[in-house]
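Deliverable D4.2, example record:
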Amino acid sequence: MADRGARALSLPEDRPAHPDPILALNRMGTFDWDLDTGLFHMDAQAHEVFDLLPEEYDGRPESLAVRVPPPEAARLDAVVARAIKDGSENYGAYFRIRRRDGTTRWTRTQGYIRRDDTGRPRRVVGIVRDATDELADSGARSLRAAQDEAFRQQAGVVQAVSAALAHARTVQDVIDVLKDTHGIRRLGAASMVMGLVEAGRIRLVAEAPIGSFIPAGQVNRIDEPYPMSEVVRTLQPRFIESPEEFAEGYPILWPHLTGLHITSAAYLPLIAQARPIGAMGLLYDDRRGFSAEERAVLVALGSSIAQSLQRAMLYEQEKDLAQGLQQAMLPRTIPSVRGADIAVRYRAATVGGTVGRDIGGDWYDLIPLPGGRVGAVIGDVQGHDTHAAAVMGQLRIVLRAYAAEGHTPATVMARASVFLHELDTDRFATCLYAEADLATGVVQAVRAGHIDPLIRDGDGNCRRAPVQGGLPLGLSAEFGRLEYPVTTLELDPGHTLLLCTDGLVERPGADLDDGMRGLARLVGEGPDDVRDLADRLIQLAEERGGDDDVALLLLRRRVPETPRAGGRLQQHVSPGDPEALAQARHMVRAAVRAWGARDRADEIELAADELITNALLHTEGSAIVTLRALGGGDHRLRVEVEDSSSALPRRRDAGEDGVCGRGLLLVDRLADGWGVEARGGGKAVWCEFRMPGHT
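Output generated by the structure prediction step:
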C-alpha cells in the first residue's frame, strides 16, 4: 500500500509542498466528521487505509463496520465519546481493521474536536494511518502490550454479556439478552442461533436477527450431521474458518446458508455440571479465522451463557412447583352470586430473583351461605415460601368450614385463630371476613390484624370503611384474646366492597394511611365494571413490582333483592357490650329498609330492642338476634332473640316506677304475632310483622 501511494503522488518542485502529497507519502489519510449530519468524509488515502473502494463507502461511519470488527468499533466509540464529554480538544487511539483478504492490520487515528461558541461539538477532523509496521518496529514488548490490550478488550465482551445475563431470571430472559441488537454487536457476529437439549434432541429456541434462523428444522437429533449436534455430542467447540470449510464439513447444511453470506462460524456447547444443556452458533459475514485469544473468549462466553441457562432452568422449575402449590391452595372457581358481581385476582411477589420466593400466603375466598348470604374472605399468612402457602391452604379450608356451619362472623374468626395456634407452626395470619346479605345490603365484618376494606359508591367516590379489629389469627389464641368485635356496614345497590392484602397498599418507607388514601383514589378513578377494575389494580401492582404478593376481592351489589324465604341475618350480642347492642339495632334498621318495610321500621326496631334487652336482663348469658324475611302466601318479617335460659318470659304490668314490665306488652301491641320456642337448653322469643302491601 505504501509503494502504491508513493507512485501515485510525487512532490512538485514548488515549495512549500502541499499537505496532500506529504500525507500520502507518509501513508496517512484524512477525515472530516460532521457531527450535525453524521457524515464522515474521507479522502482517497483514508480509503486506502481502510481497504475500501470509493464506491463501497457511502459516507456514514456505520459503513466502516465492514472493516472494523464490532469490539474494536465499540472501544473506539468509547474513546471519542469520553473526549467529547470531558471537553477535550483531541484524542488518539490504536484499533484493528480486517482487510478484504481476511488479514488484520493495526491502525492509528488522531482527531481534533471543533466546538462552537457555546462549547457544543460540531466537527471532528483528523487523520488515520496504518500502524502495523510501527507497532512491529516498537519491538516484541510493545506488540505484546497491544495484543494484551486487545485480549483485555475481548475479555470485556465476556464481562459485558455476563453482566447483562446476571439479571436474567428465566430462559427467555437469557435469550432476550443474546438476541438484543447490542448483544449481537458485542459478540461481533452477524447472526446467532441457540438450541436446548430435550430428551435426546436439540430444540432451536432463538434466532437473531429475526429471519436468520438456519432452516435445518426446529428439532434435530443429536446424531444428525449438523454443527450444533456435533458440539453437543463431543462437548467441544467447533470453529469453522471459511466458507469452503463449512461446505466441506456440513454439505447438507451449507446450501441453506449461501444466502446469508456466511464467511466463518463458531459453535459452542453449553455445558453445566459436566453435561450438555444446549448449543449456540455465532455466524460471521465479515471475517475468516479465529485467533487463539478469540477462541478463548468465545469458550468463556459459552460457559457464562451455560451457567445463566442452568440457573434460569432451575428457577423456572422451582417457580412452576411454587405456582402449582399456590394455585392448588387458592379456590379453583369462584361461585356466581345472585345480585352481585364478583372479581378476584392474585399476583405473585417478585423478590430480587431469588428462586422459590415468588410465592406467598395471601388468599381470597367466597363462601355461599344459607339465606342468600355470602362470606367474603381476604387473608395473608406470614412469609413468602411454600410453608406459608401450605398453612394458607389449611387455614382457608377450615375458615370456609366454620362459616358454612352457620357460626357468626366473630365465632368463625375466633375458631380459625385457635386452629392456627394448634397447627404447631410459627406463622400467624391476618384476615378480614365480611358476611353480606345482598337482599338488605347489610355487611357484618370482623378483622384480625388486617387492613380495612374500601367501599366505592355508584358515583365513583371511594372511602375507607373502618372495621373494629382483633389480634392476628394464631396470636389471639396464644394471648387468650379471642374477642373479634363485629362491625356492621351497609352496601347500597351499585356500591362495591373491596378487600385486599397489604401488598396492594404498602410502599417501602411510606405511611400505611397514605397508601390507603392512594388506593381509594385509584379505585374511585377506575372503571365501573369490577372485572375491569380488578385488572387495572393488578396491572398497577405489576408495574410497581415489589416483594409482596397481592390478593384482591371485589364484590359489587347489583340490585336489591325482594324478600324471599330463607332471607336471614344474625348478630351475637354479649352482656355488657353496648357496641354489640348498637350493631344489632343497626342491622335491624338497615334490613327493614332494604326489605321494603320502611313504614314499620320504628315498630320493628323497638320490638327487637325490647326482646334483646329482656334476654340480657333476665338471663345470665348472651343473646343471638336473627332477622328473617319469610315468603309464601303472606310476606312477613320475623325477629327471633335466642338465649340459653329455659325460663319462659311472661307479661307483667309496669312497676311502681313505671320503667320495668312494659317489654312484652309493647311487643304484643306492636307485632302481628309473637311467641316462644324451646331451643335445646334455651329458648327463642319471636315476633312477626306483615310487610306493607300484604294482608
